[in-house]
């Protein structure tokens, strides 16, 4: 597959192989872009600003609907590509495509609702005879940098709102899974003026630095890990920033919880996409009174998960993104066991596959739960009461989402008030997200919100108009 710069397909002699983690076969190659490609993409995006800015909202909205139609026709092909490059079960890749199409539709709708507000000028002494209002204008060039785990939906969460607000885009997908996103960018690009959407591939460090430090880029919208997000924040200078970073989401199971529901939440939350979800359940905090019963049920359900060929529609869990990622998870689990945690099921690795794993008597100080463990692991932390559960929930530098299972409204209200996270979900696990809700973490999990309406708002700036 090729890069897209100023409407042209750009190839390079040097290429990066995209590997299917299920069978280690090469799915395709992408060009190894360099700094000049990044500069060319930024230049093209700047040149295209005028055409985008002059387009009517009505026309732009219709174009976004047309793109939606074309992507919908490619749903099957795109879903398979996501599965081949990430190892995600095909059933989940189809859901990702459904969500991506929905995200795009929401942006098409939102593109006609971008407006400022009137200002009551006469409320100030100097404004007595003036009229005033704001207009919302594009930022200019938006850079979108995305990770491997939801390569299409996370990209469309940036591209669609940026375009809906008449910005132009420089897009850099993950090197580990660039194909489906690149294909989508090419489809989008064909419907819009040349240079409105540019997509480049290559080293995150090299291209990322060129983009992040450029004074011809007006906003960075980044989704990825905390270390990369931090380095971007340090280098970006006077640019608008949205950072959607890592999570370490807790699931609180209180002694008054519906345990069947809590177990289903834990299974869905811990093992979706082999645990490679920013909002995966990464710590299960259980009241000691119900811990044994909850854990028995959790282990039974975990053992039933069907692991295998991601293209098989029956497969519930595939490999991790690569063997290195699986080894990393293996080390974290082994370290917890060496420090006193008890392995109840799983704990085995074969190449990039890591078994769905339940591990009990985990201590909050262990690396497994202090850091983000991006794999299919359910670490159990037993607690005595809600006070302790909330303390443990807040006991990491992360704060993306949190779920609590309880039948008490008072307990739920306390969790909402006291848990430091961008969302608190009652009787739902943290993996629950709709694409229109405001989404974004507290603490080291990021800054700014996505969710189409909120992302569109963040892709604009206000200009004040005064009529004297
Ligand atoms: P990552 O290593 O941080 O990479 C993310 C993107 O940043 C990739 O495109 C990468 O390019 C690029 N990059 C690397 N170094 C860069 C630099 N110096 N400047 C600019 N860009 C740079 O993350 P990942 O391993 O792909 O994804 C997993 C992480 O993403 C997890 O922590 C997960 O929780 C987080 N995540 C967060 C959300 C959210 O919404 N909060 C959603 C999904 C995932 P290369 O691939 O070429 O290195």
Please give a structural write-up.
The chain has helices spanning 35-47, 49-54, 57-73, 75-86, 90-110, 153-164, 179-191, 204-213, 226-235, 259-271, 288-304, 323-338, 367-370, 386-393, 409-418, 452-458, and strands at residues 3-5, 8-10, 15-19, 26-31, 118-119, 131-138, 141-145, 168-172, 197-199, 219-223, 240-244, 249-253, 281-287, 342-345, 349-350, 353-354, 357-360, 377-383, 398-399, 401-405, 423-426, 442-443, 446-447, 460-467. It is of the alpha/beta class and 468 residues long. The strands form 7 sheets. It has a 7-stranded mixed β-sheet, sandwiched between helices. A hairpin with a 2-residue loop joins strand 15 (349-350) and strand 16. The termini are far apart. Residues 145-149, 154, 172, 174-176, 203-205, 208-209, 212, 223-225, 228, 231-232, 244-247, 278, 372, 374, 400, 441, 446 line the site of NADP nicotinamide-adenine-dinucleotide phosphate (NAP). NADP nicotinamide-adenine-dinucleotide phosphate (NAP) binds next to helix 8 and helix 9.
Number of strands: 24
List ligands, each type once: NADP nicotinamide-adenine-dinucleotide phosphate
Helix/sheet category: alpha/beta
Our measurement of the CA-to-CA distance between the termini, rounded to an integer number of angstroms, reads 56 Å
User: How many separate helices?
Assistant: 16
Strand order of the largest sheet: 14-17-18-13-12-20-21
Give the proportion of residues in helices: 40-55%
Overall residue-averaged pLDDT value: 98
Low-confidence stretches: none
Radius of gyration of CA atoms, rounded to a whole number: 23 Å
Q: DSSP strand (E) fraction?
A: 15-25%
Tell the overall outline.
globular
Main pleated sheet: 7 strands, mixed
């Amino acid at each position: 597959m090729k890069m897209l710069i100023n409407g042209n397909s750009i190839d390079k002699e040097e290429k990066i192989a995209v590997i299917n983690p299920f069978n280690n076969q090469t799915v395709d190659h992408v060009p190894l872009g360099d700094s000049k490609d990044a500069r060319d993409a930024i230049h093209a995006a700047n040149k295209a600003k005028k055409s985008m800015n002059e387009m009517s909202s009505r026309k732009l909205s219709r174009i976004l609907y047309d793109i939606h139609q074309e992507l919908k026709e490619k749903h099957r092909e795109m879903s398979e590509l996501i599965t081949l490059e990430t190892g995600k079960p095909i059933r989940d890749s189809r859901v990702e495509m459904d969500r991506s199409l929905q995200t795009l539709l929401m942006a098409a709708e939102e593109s006609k609702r971008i407006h400022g507000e009137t200002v009551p000028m006469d409320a100030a002494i100097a404004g007595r005879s003036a009229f005033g209002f704001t207009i919302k204008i594009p930022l200019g060039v938006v850079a979108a940098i995305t990770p491997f785990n939801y390569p299409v939906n996370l990209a469309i969460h940036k591209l669609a709102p940026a375009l809906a607000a008449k910005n132009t885009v420089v897009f850099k997908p993950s090197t580990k899974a660039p194909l489906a996103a690149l294909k989508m960018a090419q489809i989008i690009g064909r419907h819009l003026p040349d240079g409105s959407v540019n997509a480049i591939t290559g080293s995150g460090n090299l291209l990322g630095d060129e983009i992040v430090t450029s004074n011809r880029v007006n906003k960075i919208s980044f989704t990825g890990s905390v270390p990369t997000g931090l380095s971007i924040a340090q280098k970006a200078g006077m640019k608008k920033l949205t950072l959607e970073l890592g999570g370490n989401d807790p699931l609180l199971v209180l002694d008054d919880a519906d345990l069947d529901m809590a177990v289903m939440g834990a299974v869905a939350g811990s093992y979706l996409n082999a645990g490679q979800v920013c909002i995966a359940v990464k710590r299960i905090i259980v009241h000691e009174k119900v811990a044994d019963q909850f854990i028995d049920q959790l282990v039974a359900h975990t053992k039933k998960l069907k692991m295998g060929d991601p293209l098989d529609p029956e497969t519930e869990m595939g490999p991790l993104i690569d063997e290195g990622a699986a080894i990393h998870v293996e080390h974290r689990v082994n370290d917890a066991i060496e420090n006193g945690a008890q392995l109840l099921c799983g704990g085995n690795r074969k190449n990039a596959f890591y078994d769905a794993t339940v591990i009990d008597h985990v201590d909050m100080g262990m690396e497994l739960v202090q850091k983000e463990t991006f794999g299919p692991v359910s670490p159990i932390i037993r607690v005595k009461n809600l006070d302790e559960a909330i303390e443990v929930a807040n006991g990491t530098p992360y704060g993306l989402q949190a779920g609590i299972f309880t039948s008490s409204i008072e307990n739920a209200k306390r969790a909402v008030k006291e848990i430091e996270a961008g969302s608190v979900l009652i009787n739902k696990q943290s993996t629950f997200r709709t694409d229109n809700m405001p989404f974004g973490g507290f603490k080291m999990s990021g800054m700014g919100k996505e969710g189409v309406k909120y992302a569109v708002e963040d892709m604009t700036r206000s200009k004040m108009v005064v009529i004297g």
